[in-house]
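Handoff note, outgoing to incoming analyst
You'll be picking up this chain. Sequence as last confirmed:
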Amino acid sequence: MRRLRVIRGWKDLSPGDRGAALAMGSFDGVHRGHQRVIALAARAAGELGAPLGVITFDPHPRVYFRPGEPAFRLMQPDQQARALEAMGVDILYVLPWDAELANMTDRDFAASVLHRGLGARHVAVGFDNSFGKDRTGSPETMRAYGAELGFGVSVAEAVEDGAGEKFSSTHVREALRDGRPGDAAAILGRPFAIEGAVQRGRQLGRTLGFPTANVALTDYVIPRFGVYATRTRLPDGRHVPGVANIGVNPTIEGVRIPLLEVWLFDFDEDIYDQVIETDLIAFLRPELKFDGLETMTAQVMKDARAARDLLMPPLE
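Most recent structure output, in case you need it:
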């Protein structure tokens, strides 16, 4: 049974939907830095006997203020909800990022949204959190508003790797665009995964001996075009290793948008229109344009062997 409750908005909530200890942020990726913020809220929730809540915004403020930017999301809403639920979050508050919120001063946000709207008993934020019109709010001002309005505040310190680099969603995106899924996974605490419904394509791969499940990238950050060793979760919970191409398949003529095309090993079932989630485990090579289908097929078979060796090493 699903434990997480998703509440959209902050106005006119019932008493049972208010009074949580809250973690606030965009939490795109729910990476290890985000996890520290949520852990602080969880500690406060335990001490107060309050529900554990998380605040996110829809659309992401970056989309609202810079709508023409390239896609950048690390998670779809369902993926984010599952990740938060796995951390024990009770309530996910999805606040509509609109003109009203965008033009609120930091004090109005604390008083109207956090205090009067959500009835926050505690608010946890990251060390670099900003809020309110023109991003004038800071962890320090949040502490001041908490003292004034009657909710506790905790601030998470930065989480760093061994080289002192701060974990951030920006660094995850950089790693993926550079073709470094392992580095992205180290920050996220799990592999980066693309989720979507399997589309009906030309079925060319099936005729060539490597049937693929094709998934649109929608508003995900676009990883480096190329071939990846993958692991895919099916709707029934099975995990299937495979090899995938991300890109536009330049060998095949025709204008195409970037796709994830994943060949699931030792699998022959109809999963059209079903939602699958594919982890990027390792980058194998850049996307190439071949001089023909025979050359392309030979390379795909080599890629499959490399992915099998990586994901399914033979028993000694």
